[in-house]
Write the structure tokens for this entry.
Amino acid sequence: MYGAIRVLLQVFFAQLLCGWVLGSELTFELPDNAKQCFYEDIIMGTKCTLEFQVVTGGHYDVDCRLEDPDGTVLYKEMKKQYDSFTFTAARNGTFKFCFSNEFSTFTHKTVYFDFQVGEDPPLFPNENRVTALTQMESACVSIHEALKSVIDYQTHFRLREGQGRSRAEDLNTRVAFWSIGEAFILLVVSISQVVLLRSFFSDRKTTTTRVGS
């Protein structure tokens, strides 16, 4: 009984530790003609992954740029809807990654990014030992991996839902304006037809001039 409780506590603390190791995850608003930068302190030799996606706004595209502490450009893409980039830090220091919407004059964007720094620590301190894991430990490792997959799927479907809702709202706005335009055109055509038909059947006054002898 004590062993099972100890294993469950290790799983709990491992989940908390993973939240610290995985880095930054954020969804933010990027106004038109704006640029937003983020900074992360990374130790040399650490494997990192930058993943981003434009959720709403315009053509769902944004400029992305990643620089190392020396200012060397590691990654640069223009007008991308989504992308993922993995690299290993070549030195210690503060890395900078920026998202730019400066090419847009009136459309703001909603951008999601996930910057993962390092890899998940082992669920158990002695997970890499020569002897096999116990049945309880193996079950905990499987549950841990399944929970990480669930989190990834939830994030993916949350982004898909937000993007679909934005497209639906945009389509609804266009349909509403189109309906108003059609109603206005129909009103103008109806009034024009009534005026035209009345001109056909109206009595025209004729002027008769008599010439006296």
